């Protein structure tokens, strides 16, 4: 009954109650549509006033206009309130506690082999050794011939070699900038040891000299707990007028003492390498079984030590007095100069220092292993 002033009052209080109990902006907009939209209840009421007589129209008209004004006021108030509320609750979600300790970013570190290499380098450098480097792709000349291992020599079998296919007319490219092209055509390979750096260094630097050359080397052989197809060596060379094997022993014992930070038992064993005479193998007492060759398990049973191959010693380097033919290959007079050379297996050093029982772990990229260093 639009002409009933009571109806206006009821409509007004219904609309205001609804506005007040409204809890979100979407519902509020919907309310506005329902009351003051094109076909809203208040709109229709105001439109129907024309049908009333003058007295009624004035009375109800005033009430209806007031109701609309009130609706609009309440609507605006509520809208403001809801906007503020939504903003504040959004802020809650985004609130940043500037006093909270920062989340730690994962930080990498050097690979254990890099750490070992750096430690070894530092010790030798403190003893006056210079640092040299050579290519991983090497020529037959530097890897073998110049080291007194001619092509026909059975000693070449000591190093299982990855020979490289000869690229079309690009022999110089492989090792451009180096004096590799000797009289005969060269074959190329992945260096089987760091000893070719001895030759490269002596071609440039005249004795007396002391130098080390750490680097990666490659062997074409089956892998097991003690062998990998690529590993690291540190070559050492000292040449002077009266450098002897006694100097080598002193230097290497001092190196081990500093590297392992304790007295370490090493032994020299006669051995053969074509580029030294005499040659020796240097072994270290196995840290896994303390040189016993076996360990006792929980059940009290004897178990062979797999790290040292049950012998109690681990072969850690080859060494010897530089062969006169090697000195001749770099135009150095063996009657005037002499010295020693050695090649330490850096992986074996790492394994001894950190008690790693399988060399393959070092190349596995397994984070559970690497994160321990
Ligand atoms: N180059 C030898 C090897 O890889 C090690 C060695 C170096 C031996 C220097 C003697 C002198 O087995």
From TrEMBL:
Q: What is its EC number?
A: 6.1.1.20
Q: Name one Pfam family in it.
A: Phe_tRNA-synt_N
Query: What PROSITE patterns does the annotation carry?
Result: AA_TRNA_LIGASE_II (PS50862)
Q: Fetch the SUPFAM superfamilies from UniProt.
A: Class II aaRS and biotin synthetases, tRNA-binding arm
Query: What keywords are annotated for this sequence in UniProt?
Result: Aminoacyl-tRNA synthetase, ATP-binding, Cytoplasm, Ligase, Magnesium, Metal-binding, Nucleotide-binding, Protein biosynthesis
GO cellular component, alphabetical, reads: cytoplasm
- Mind listing the GO biological process terms from this record? phenylalanyl-tRNA aminoacylation
| Main EC class the enzyme belongs to | ligase
Textual note on the cofactor:
Binds 2 magnesium ions per tetramer.
Which InterPro entries is this protein grouped with? Answer: aa-tRNA-synth_II (IPR006195), aa-tRNA-synth_II/BPL/LPL (IPR045864), Phe-tRNA-synth_IIc_asu (IPR004529), Phe-tRNA_ligase_II_N (IPR004188), Phe_tRNA_ligase_alpha1_bac (IPR022911), Phenylalanyl-tRNA_Synthase (IPR002319), tRNA-bd_arm (IPR010978)
Quote the record's binding site residues for Mg(2+): 277
Cofactor(s) it depends on: Mg(2+)
> Where is this chain's protein located in or outside the cell?
Cytoplasm
CDD domains with a match to the protein in the record = PheRS_alpha_core
GO-annotated molecular function: ATP binding; magnesium ion binding; phenylalanine-tRNA ligase activity; tRNA binding
Domain of life, source organism: Bacteria
NCBIfam families, per database record: pheS
The entry's family comment says: Belongs to the class-II aminoacyl-tRNA synthetase family. Phe-tRNA synthetase alpha subunit type 1 subfamily.
- What quaternary arrangement does the UniProt entry report? Tetramer of two alpha and two beta subunits.
* Protein name per its UniProtKB record: Phenylalanine--tRNA ligase alpha subunit
Species for this entry? Candidatus Wildermuthbacteria bacterium RIFCSPHIGHO2_02_FULL_45_25
Q: What is the lineage of its organism?
A: Bacteria, Candidatus Wildermuthiibacteriota
* Gene that encodes the chain: pheS
């Amino acid at each position: 009954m639009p002409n009933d002033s009571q109806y206006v009052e009821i409509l007004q209080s219904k609309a205001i109650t609804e506005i007040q109990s409204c809890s979100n902006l979407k519902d509020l907009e919907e309310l506005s549509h329902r009351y003051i939209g094109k076909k809203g209840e208040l709109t229709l009421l105001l439109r129907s006033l024309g049908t009333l007589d003058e007295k009624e129209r004035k009375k109800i008209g005033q009430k209806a206009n007031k109701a609309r004004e009130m609706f609009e006021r309440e609507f605006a108030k509520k809208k403001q309130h809801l906007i503020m509320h939504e903003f504040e609750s959004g802020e809650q979600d985004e609130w940043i506690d500037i006093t909270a300790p920062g989340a730690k970013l994962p930080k990498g570190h050097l690979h254990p082999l890099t750490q070992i290499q750096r430690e070894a380098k530092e010790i030798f450098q403190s003893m006056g050794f210079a640092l040299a480097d050579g290519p991983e792709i090497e020529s037959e000349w530097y890897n073998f011939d110049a080291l007194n291992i001619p092509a026909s020599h059975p000693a070449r079998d000591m190093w299982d070699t990855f020979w490289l296919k000869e690229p079309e007319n690009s022999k110089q490219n492989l090792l451009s900038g180096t004096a590799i092209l000797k009289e005969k055509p060269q074959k190329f390979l992945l260096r089987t040891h760091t000893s070719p750096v001895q030759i490269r260094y002596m071609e440039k630097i005249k004795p007396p000299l002391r130098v080390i050359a750490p680097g990666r080397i490659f062997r074409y052989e089956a892998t097991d707990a003690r062998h990998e197809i690529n590993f690291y060596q540190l070559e050492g060379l000292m040449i002077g007028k009266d450098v002897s094997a006694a100097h080598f022993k002193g230097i290497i014992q001092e190196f081990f003492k500093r590297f392992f930070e304790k007295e370490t038992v090493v032994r020299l064993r006669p051995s053969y390498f074509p580029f030294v005479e005499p040659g020796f193998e240097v072994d270290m007492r196995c840290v896994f079984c303390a040189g016993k060759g076996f360990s006792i398990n929980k059940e009290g049973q004897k178990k062979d030590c797999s790290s040292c191959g049950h012998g109690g010693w681990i072969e850690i380097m080859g060494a010897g007095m530089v062969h006169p033919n090697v000195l001749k290959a770099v135009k150095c007079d063996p009657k005037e100069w002499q010295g020693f050379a050695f090649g330490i297996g850096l992986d074996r050093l790492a394994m001894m220092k950190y008690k790693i029982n399988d060399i393959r772990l070092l190349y596995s990229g397994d984070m559970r292993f690497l994160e321990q260093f």
